[in-house]
Each structure stands twice: as structure tokens, then as C-alpha cells.
Design goal:
The chain is an alpha/beta fold and 420 residues long. 35% of the residues lie in helices and 23% in strands.
Length: 420
């Protein structure tokens, strides 16, 4: 039989009785329930205003294949009165496949490991309770440059290749996909968790930026990280810090217009991290396309012997690009934020069908976003994807980039097209 882990939750009706009945239905389906974690009460994540959940994790043994198991879980949800009306809405029963025999499964309606389990404390806490061996060996936490330098020298003496993923923490599936690629490519995988103060403007969210090191350490280990570099601000920048890296012109377009100095801070922080970690390969996501291109530029022009890998955008099931800032969104703002990916699909389709007028495509994109009541457009831009200069005609390697405020949260998204 196959060992699996299921998430179970309820926030409608008699919540505890719903969970008890779901367990009985699993047994009736010849699924052996081996362990049940402590049931915990948690706040709902996303969705409209609603009551608190009771959540737990189950360890089961089953002969069912993944698709058959999913169908069985949906059937049990229906028996217990679940109605799928609003995304992330209240429900009598929620059953999810978290892990299936250590396999990676990706189909249209089933992704295992569950793509959001690493973001959910109400999954990680009970999972750690009933499967502690999964979390027994955490990644090594390093807080000083001196210790990091020492470790890097040891790895070099052992002829180990180093993969590096710079992050600001509050890890999500986008970060984890970069880490998994590093694990494939390199002997040792290192991430940094550092909310870089010099890339935030005076009215930006540096103080409020989400931080949860304990959670991030669990996620890092789950993705296979070996070392987590998490320095304090004062470790990276002295009070007399005077040296900065600035990529002329590239940092002054797109996000650089409304965030002056942001990319000087990014480039300086990343350059310092490269000098400290000395990776063979560094991984960045395409969602921050301008940042990724600037990093490629400093790597080339400052003669770093580092390969930069820019990996595809990781999206939620409904198309929203994953971001640590998504947690700030209200239910309505979260719905409205889908307009970002919708505009990019619209633009791509128009270009595919022969439209080449930037003004016409921008107008169609703007119309989609402006229908959303919480949205305020920062920019919709068509740029040369290599040199980040504005395009006069849609031709070559085209970056279509969008930035929009939803309430007080600013989100970005983009697509890169090769157009003849």
C-alpha cells in the first residue's frame, strides 16, 4: 500500500463532527487511516469573511492511484455537503492530497506535493507532529559573513558546486521551484533570507514586509536547501556604508520610475551576496524580469564567474503570479489582481493574431484592468527584453510588463515573446 498525507479542514456546521465523519468515510472507502494529528483552530486564508477552521493532517495507506484518491476525496466532500461556489470560501469539508509516496505529480487538476502546503502553517504544524522525521534535519542556518566565508572555502576545497537562490524570505512555490532547480544542477544549494533595506523607498513596506524565519527554515528543508544565510542588516551594511552598484539607464525605467534608487539597492545587495556566497549558478524568477536582466548585466560587466539562470514565472492555479506580497490582498483585491495575467494573455493573443500596434494593445490591456474597482495602473510597457529600452514597434524579443496597485499593494507581472 502507498503512504500518503492528507490535509483535512472544516469551518461550517459542527466542524469536529464533520472531521470525524470524513475519517469514517475514508475507512469505508478501504483507506487505512494510520495517524491523525491534533486538531487545531486557525484563521481562514483568503476568501470572503468567514469563520475559523478546524484543521488536521492524516497519514493514510491506500491502494488507490492518485487520480482515484482525488475522486474519492471529492466524493466525501460532497457527502458532507460541500458546495464549490466561491474560491477559498467557507466549506463543511476540505480534503487535500498533500504528499503521495514522495512522488511529484502535475496534471490539470492535481499537483502533488500540494503547491500551497509550504505556505500553510496549519499544514506544517500538524504534519511535523505526525511525521517528525521529515523535519529532523533542518538546513544549516548561518548569520555571519565570516561563517559563510568559512563554509564556502570548505566547499571549494571539497570541489563542490554551489547553487544560490537570493530571497527576502516568506518563501512560496516560486522560490521553491528555484531551489529545486538548484538541487538538480549543483552539489550544494544555498539560499539567502535578507530583507534588503536599501532597496526600499521611504514610503515602502520595509517594516511591514512579511518575515517568518521558522516557517522559512521548514520550507527550505522541504525543498532540499543545505545552507540558509540570514544576516542582520548591520552585518551587511555598516553605518558608514558608502559603496553602491548602479546599473545606468536599466534601473531608471519600468519599476525604476516610481521606485527611484530601488535597483541600485538591489544591485548592491546582490553583488555583496555574490561576493559572500561565491556561487557557480544563481537563480532568479522571470516575474521580476527587470531585476533579472539587471543582475545578468552586473554579472557580465563586473566579471563575476557566475551563471545566471532565469526561471519561468510560477503561478497560482487561477493565473496570479506568486508573490510574498499577495498575502496583503483582501478578498476583492485578490480577485481584481487576476486582471494582470488576463491582460498578458490578451496581449499575447492579439500579437499572435497579427496585431502590431502598441497603442491598440495597451488600450485593450488598460480596459481590462480599469474594470476592477480596486486597481490603479502604474504602467503597461512594451520593452526590448535584452536592453530594457521602450519599443516603437513589436518585433524581436519583446517584454510586456505590467505594474498595478490593488488597494495598497503593488503587484507586477510580465510575459516575454519572440515576435517576427
Amino acid at each position: 500500500m502507498t503512504k500518503c498525507y492528507l490535509g483535512i479542514g472544516s469551518n461550517l456546521g459542527n466542524r469536529r463532527e464533520n472531521i470525524r465523519r470524513a475519517v469514517e468515510f475514508l475507512k469505508e472507502a478501504r483507506i487505512k487511516v494510520k495517524k491523525i494529528s491534533t486538531i487545531i483552530e486557525t484563521e481562514p486564508v483568503g476568501g470572503p469573511p468567514q469563520g475559523k477552521f478546524l484543521n488536521a493532517v492524516l497519514e493514510i495507506n491506500t491502494n488507490l492511484k492518485p487520480r482515484a484518491l482525488l475522486d474519492t476525496l471529492k466524493s466525501i466532500e460532497e457527502k458532507l455537503g460541500r458546495k464549490r461556489t466561491v474560491r477559498f470560501g467557507p466549506r463543511t469539508m476540505d480534503l487535500d492530497i498533500l504528499l503521495y509516496d514522495g512522488k511529484n505529480i502535475k496534471t490539470k487538476d492535481l499537483i502533488v506535493p500540494h503547491p500551497r502546503m509550504h505556505q500553510r502553517d496549519f499544514v506544517l504544524r500538524p504534519l511535523k507532529e505526525i511525521a517528525p522525521k521529515m523535519f529532523k534535519q533542518e538546513a544549516r542556518l548561518v548569520k555571519t559573513i565570516k561563517e559563510m566565508n568559512k563554509l564556502v572555502k570548505q566547499l571549494r576545497r571539497q570541489d563542490k558546486s554551489i547553487g544560490f537562490v537570493p530571497t527576502m524570505g516568506y518563501l512560496h512555490e516560486g522560490h521553491l521551484s528555484l531551489i529545486r532547480q538548484s538541487k538538480k544542477d549543483c552539489d550544494v544549494s544555498i539560499i539567502s533570507i535578507f530583507v534588503n533595506p536599501i532597496q526600499f523607498g521611504p514610503r515602502e513596506d520595509y517594516r511591514q514586509y512579511p518575515r517568518d524565519l521558522k516557517r522559512d527554515m521548514l520550507l527550505a528543508k522541504s525543498a532540499g536547501v543545505d545552507i540558509v544565510f540570514c544576516p542582520e542588516d548591520k552585518e551587511m551594511y555598516s553605518k558608514e556604508h558608502l559603496t553602491y552598484v548602479n546599473v545606468e539607464r536599466m534601473g531608471n525605467v519600468l519599476c525604476g520610475v516610481t521606485r527611484p534608487g530601488h535597483f541600485k539597492g538591489v544591485a548592491t545587495g546582490v553583488a555583496k551576496l555574490f561576493n559572500i556566497v561565491e556561487p557557480d549558478i544563481a537563480y532568479f524568477g522571470q516575474k521580476d524580469a527587470q531585476q533579472a536582466r539587471i543582475i545578468e548585466k552586473i554579472t557580465e560587466e563586473l566579471n563575476y564567474q557566475i551563471k545566471i539562470k532565469v526561471m519561468p514565472i510560477v503561478r497560482e492555479k487561477d493565473g496570479l503570479a506568486m508573490s510574498s506580497r499577495n498575502k496583503y490582498l483582501s478578498f476583492q483585491e485578490r480577485k481584481d489582481a487576476l486582471s494582470l495575467s488576463e491582460t498578458l494573455v490578451k496581449a499575447s493573443d492579439m500579437i499572435k493574431n497579427g496585431q502590431r500596434s502598441i497603442n491598440v494593445i495597451q488600450a485593450a490591456m488598460r480596459e481590462i484592468i480599469e474594470r476592477r474597482k480596486t486597481a490603479k495602473i502604474d504602467y503597461i510597457s512594451f520593452m526590448d527584453a535584452d536592453n530594457l529600452t521602450p519599443l516603437k514597434e513589436i518585433k524581436g524579443k519583446v517584454l510586456i510588463a505590467v505594474a498595478t496597485w490593488f488597494g495598497t499593494t503593488r503587484l507586477i507581472d510580465n510575459v516575454i515573446l519572440q515576435v517576427r
